[in-house]
Amino acid sequence: MSDIIKQTQTEQDIKTRTSVFQMFKSGDEISVSLIQRKCSVGYFSASRTLENLVKDGLVELIKGTYGKML
């Protein structure tokens, strides 16, 4: 991938992640489809955002594509 595409993806990931933090509070259930609707992003971006939040310990994975904000 070119550097421009990687930079654009990284910027979009940061914007999506920031939006998720602003929209959801502790204890809220969150899903890939909810991130898609609320942040106006595609499935891949929403899925990657949820995976990164789980990996960073900010969301507890409940099942499949559902999680809970910690």
Give a written overview of the molecule.
It is a single chain. The chain is of the alpha+beta class. It has one domain (3-69): Winged helix-like DNA-binding domain superfamily/Winged helix DNA-binding domain (Arc Repressor Mutant, subunit A, Orthogonal Bundle), CATH 1.10.10. The chain has three helices and three strands; from the N terminus they run αβααββ. The protein has helices at 3-23, 32-39, 43-55; strands spanning 29-31, 59-63, 66-69. Strands 1-3-2 form a three-stranded antiparallel β-sheet. Strand 2 (59-63) and strand 3 form a beta hairpin. Helix 1 packs across helix 3 (43-55) and helix 2 (32-39) packs across helix 3 (43-55). The radius of gyration is 12 Å and the shape is globular. The termini are far apart. 19% of the residues are buried.
